[in-house]
Amino acid sequence: QVQLVESGGGLVQVGGSLTLSCVASGLAFSSSTMGWFRRAPGKEREFVGDIRWTGQITYNSDSMKGRFSISRDNAKNTVYLQMHSLKSEDTGVYFCAAQDGSYEYVYWGQGTQVTVSS
User: Fold this and answer.
1) Which of 47, 73, 102, 111 has an alpha carbon within 20 to 30 A of 20's alpha carbon?
2) Residue 47 vs residues 26, 32, 36, 39, 118: alpha-carbon distances, Å
3) What string of pLDDT tens digits covers the 118 residues of the chain?
């Protein structure tokens, strides 16, 4: 059974930083593409970025690429999302996800709330 457990969310002021973690179990983590998504209040879920087993990283936008950083530690079965220069529009629930062999995100964590206040 695949489990993804996010942590690290919380309340932070505009311009602050936060690091999210996602611990995975029940899958071949080192060969899995891991992604981060978010859902802002009243909006649909949005792709933030992902990291392939090769280490290749993709971000949704240049804005995220400049402020967010995705990394992984295969020894700990953990993927990270470091966020800097946070804006109020970064507020939302952040989800960790894993692809299966069909390159679809089929495994999801429960999400962790990030609130950026001014």
Assistant:
1) 102
2) 23, 17, 7, 9, 24
3) 999 999 999 999 999 999 999 999 999 999 999 999 999 999 999 999 999 999 999 999 887 888 999 999 999 999 999 999 999 999 999 999 999 888 899 999 999 999 999 8
- Number of Cβ within 10 Å of residue 59's Cβ equals 18
Ranges of H-type helices in 2-118: 62-67
Sign of CA dihedral 11, 57, 80, 67: negative
Return d(Cα 6, Cα 95) in angstroms, integer: 7
